Amino acid sequence: MRHGGRAMDERRRLSSAMGADAAGAVCLAEAGMDVAMLAPVGSSRTAAADAIAESGRRSMTVFADLDDFASVESALARVRASFGTPSVLLTVIGPGSYRGPGGLLDQDWKEVVERPLRRAFLAGRASIDSLIKNGWGRVIAVLDVDRSGRAQPHEDAVLRAGLEGLVRTLALELSPFGITSNLITSDRSGSAREWAGARYGSRVADLVGFLVSDEASAVSGRSIPLNDDGSQPEASDGPSSGRRCGGELNKQVAVVMTI
């Protein structure tokens, strides 16, 4: 299936509205991958599952205690039993709830910084053996934007720095096995918040499509900011322009985790 048809455009429109996790998941499905959504216990089945099914790929939602390594490991074992060994881990970290400068209390720190960093680390740790076994893989983290417009550009700085350190460490450790690790963020100026609702999910999907391609095999350990000055059309010249999530990743498996 070519990726310029009306059905694909409609899925991309819907995935953009659902957010970066759904947009990235749909992109991976369009690249030929079966996609397992890893979600916290108590959450509902993700909206991305229906869009993935429409692409013709298999989808499943697995629930786990994302703060517990054994639970994450068990969830990934269920993915392997159903779909096979994952070769792509896409982790989407949502924005936290901030109190402004000087207002980050102990509990806020745990929720905004400590918990998402730990969850991203545990998911990466639980996935490493599978990625190495495949001899090829991609670890991609996305620091999602605050769609409310209330957060200030500095407020995700600590979490951003921690995630940058994590992806760089994974890049160094996994590069001998043909595995890359990268972080996608909104631009540091905060202007991305003005276009998040209309275009952010779609641009995340384009960049995910690029990072899983062979052309990105030398791109690793990077923090890649998405930015927009308001003058570019939705699918204009970015690193993945023209790819639109196409690829030859049939029989590959991706895990998409939302934190």
Walk me through this protein's architecture.
The chain is an alpha/beta fold and 259 residues long. The protein has a single domain, classed as NAD(P)-binding Rossmann-like Domain (Rossmann fold, 3-Layer(aba) Sandwich). It has a 7-stranded parallel beta sheet with strand order 2-1-7-3-4-5-6, sandwiched between helices. Strand 4, helix 6 and strand 5 form a beta-alpha-beta unit. Helix 2 runs parallel beside helix 7 and helix 4 runs parallel beside helix 5. It is globular.
Strands of the largest sheet, in order across it?
2-1-7-3-4-5-6
Distance between the termini: 32 Å
Total number of beta strands: 7
Mean pLDDT rating: 78
Write the layout of secondary structure elements.
Layout: H1 6-18, H2 20-30, E1 34-40, H3 48-54, E2 59-64, H4 69-82, E3 88-93, H5 106-134, E4 137-143, H6 157-174, E5 179-186, H7 196-211, E6 222-226, E7 253-258
Parallel strand pairs: 1-2, 1-7, 3-4, 3-7, 4-5, 5-6
Key terms:
single chain, 259 residues, alpha/beta, Rossmann fold, seven-stranded parallel beta sheet, 7 helices
Q: Concise description?
A:
With 259 residues, the protein is an alpha/beta fold. It has one domain: Rossmann fold.
